[in-house]
Amino acid sequence: MKPLTILSLGAGVQSTALALLSARGEVERVDAAIFADTIWEPREVYEHLDWLEEELPFPVHRVSHGDLRKDVLLSAREGKRVATPPFFTDQGNGDGLLRRQCTQQYKLDPLFKKIRGLLGLKKGQRVPHGVKVRNLMGISLDEIQRMKESPHKWMENIFPLVEKRMSRHDCLRWMEKNGYPRPPRSACVGCPYHSLKEWRSIKEDPDEWDDVVKFDKEIRGGLNGTKSALYLHRSLKPLDDVDLSTDVERGQLTFLDECDGMCGN
pTM of the full predicted structure? Predict the structure, then answer.
């Protein structure tokens, strides 16, 4: 039996490049792509995904466990249980991180559920012997430490970008060469893993920035099962009090300011 071949689509740089490579026949053709939606991606990600769907010859299935933002706020307001994002917290001995549970419930579980649906399986039905799934993942050469085997014996994770020795930069260069737009970074608006650059990007959208600042304040009192104050930023400061300026804007010299051209250029 021919394996079902799917692509785990995050709609960021690497998975977008992989989807387009598959569409052009430069890596194996997938039967479908699956985008697990937390309902809290930046507006530009959804706009990019709309564009990408029109470029692909195979279907893109959008699946969701629910609205992560809404569920977290319900936990903050009413104490309901929620699969926690890795919020920063002062636990009495410096900053720490809550255990990251959101990826499993809002990304992986909907993905596996959709795959089972594509295999024609009912809830609780075991995957028949001999049925195989190939799961193409957009992990690039510079992220090789993220490569993991599937937790399911019937599914094999495949890493075509690593096989092609393509880094994130190579993906961007390939898309530019072929006339494709630069994809946005795919991550929840309120992801605590954002860099200062990514927070600055979100701040450029006044509506998204206003919403995430309010969200940050609402989680301060904690969620179900937590006691310490929670923050989106590792500084343990309210998001709108964090200095998001660049080194140059703060008056610090950059490498180019100090470089005398003797480093081998």
Answer: 0.88
